[in-house]
Amino acid sequence: RYLSGGEIVLTGLMWRRDAADSETFVAALAAAGIAVLGAGDAALGSVPADLVAACDRYGVPLFAVPVDVSFRQIGECIASAAGRAGARGRSMISAMAAGRRLADLLPQVAAELGVNCWVLTTTGRHVAGAPAAAGAGPGPAGPSHAGAAAGRLTDQLGRQLARAFLTADRLPCTVSGGPGRRFSLFAVDARAHHRLAAWFLACEGDPASWSFELRESVDELLTLAALERAQLDEGLRVEGRLGAQLAPLLSGFAAPADIRTRLAACGLDPDGQFLAMVASITDLPSTALAQHPASTGLAAEVIRSLVPETVVAALGGGTGDAVLAVLPVPAQRPGALLDTVTAGLGCLEPGLRGGRLAVGVSEPATGAAALCRAVVEARHAHRTAVQRATPIAVVSSAELSSHLVLLAEMPADRQRTFRSRLVGPLDEYDRDRGADLVRTLETFLACAGSWTRCAERMHVHVNTLRYRVQRIEQITGRDLGRFEDRVDLFLALAMRP
Fold it and tell me: Is the dihedral angle over the CA atoms 334, 103, 311, 387 positive or is it negative?
């Protein structure tokens, strides 16, 4: 009853009368969530096998305390290590209070500890990172690697770790990062954010091999990262008020001079190049929103985790919980931003757990006047993304010339009616007779009416294909030799059933 979790418990085994007592004792310790059990061998001469077996069953780490080592010595050793770690933690927190950032402090601390560690978002973006101590060689976290020694993870590995963080049943967890590399993942202030929008700390190595001092230092790093996140969130609240003033101007085609003023107030260059983005998260399980009831706020945090300079605001006008984001396009690599956004959002699918993320992205727009047009493009692209039956749909305005855009504007009930009239009889025929007419029609149209290519793709004889097409024409009353009828059937197949 005196345990609150995370303790090192030392015992002289005076409670043990027979083997069954070990099961009862260890079960209680495991339920309390202790860190490790130290068993002295003074009373029995050794640690009994039944205690070892019970600890193994309940996953409780166990170490033996020889008779010549007092519990007091262990306590003093732990207190000394905790004092060193605590002093370092207080020093780092003071440095942050004085204006230093996590990106400045993390490399310094990682070098002192000899462990590679990074703070990442769930989209794989690096918030801060650090290399191992120069020339230190293998440290507590394991051997150093060329990628880690460069002071950064590859983008691919960062996204891999983000997916592992989102899918972990319990945190912290240890995952593989490739041959010979292990990473331990810790949530940063997990109680304050839905996991989709959380930060996490990735440390190279397995905590089982870490010293007590290193474990305490990792806890201090988590405190620092949580402090950095809290400071960022405070700044975003101010930015959110500015963004709320900008969004109506962009949606209402206000005067360019007014838009320029608001862009400058948000810290953006009014003459710069931008992407407009509209995003929404829907259908999340109710339990997933227990810590983050506003899905609009969650969508905003997800977008900010991709590009921190983004200005995000709730978007009204019948768009539900959608948010509008204005992303500054880097002058060095203007074409890379959309690729970064798409790759980052792809990491989030495991964390949606049945929910859906729909994103519409505009073409690049230069200057305040063009930004209004970009917002319209993003809105249209978002409507198309919402219609797609995939967990994550990212649609750029480059796709707006597709027939799918017209379908996105059509009400769902009208789509179902149109499809039912043209394709419904084929669906019914296939169900009743086990035929394959709908797939035949789809393949025939995809092959632009080529009998040879369609027959090869379906692995049937051309005469069999001709019979099926004739049956399709009889059932639908359409002539597949006429362009207009082909278009009608093609659109009907593309509509929502």
Answer: positive
Burial of 106 (0-12, 13-18, 19+ CB in 10 A): buried
Q: What percent of the chain has pLDDT over 90?
A: 19
**Which band of pLDDT confidence, cut at 50, 70 and 90, is reported for residue 64?**
very high
Write down the pTM of the prediction: 0.57
pLDDT tens-place string over residues 424-459: 999 999 999 888 899 999 999 989 899 999 999 899
Main-chain dihedrals φ then ψ at residue 67, nearest 5 degrees: -65, -25
For residue 214, the surrounding DSSP H or E stretch is: helix 212-251
Q: Phi/psi at 330 (nearest 5 deg)?
A: -65, 135
Q: What angle do CA 395, 396, 397 make, to 5 degrees?
A: 125
Helix (H) / strand (E) containing 212: helix 212-251
Please give the residue that has the higher pLDDT: either 202 or 128: 202
Mean pLDDT of the chain: 79
C-alpha of 202 from chain center: 14
User: Where do we find the tokens 């204006």?
Assistant: 99
Question: Is the pLDDT assigned to residue 147 strictly greater than 80?
Answer: no
Q: Are the C-beta atoms of 299 and 282 separated by less than 8 Å?
A: no
Q: How far is CA 405 from the centre of its chain?
A: 28
What distance in Å separates the CA atoms of residue 447 and residue 339, rounded to the nearest whole number?
31
Q: Which helix (H) or strand (E) holds 360?
A: strand 356-361
- CA atoms of 191 and 353, how far apart (whole Å): 19
Q: Angle, nearest 10°, between helix axes 212-251 and 256-265?
A: 170
Peptide bond preceding 172 in cis form (omega within 30 of 0): yes
Q: Torsions phi, psi of 318, nearest 5?
A: 80, 15
- The SS3 of residue 173 is strand
61 DSSP 8-state letter = -
> Above 80 in pLDDT, residue 170?
yes
Give 328's strand partners: 274
Alpha helices in 66-211 (DSSP H): 71-97, 102-113, 146-149, 155-167
Q: What is the pLDDT of residues 397-423, one digit of tens each?
A: 777 666 655 665 567 778 788 888 999
Within 8 A by CB and 6+ apart from 273, the residues are: 328, 329, 331, 334, 364, 365, 366
Which amino acid would we find at residue 417?
A: T
Q: How far, in whole angstroms, is CA 3 from its chain's centroid?
A: 35
CA distance linking residue 210 with residue 221, whole number of Å: 15
Q: What is the mean pLDDT of residues 362-389?
A: 84
Residue type, 203: C
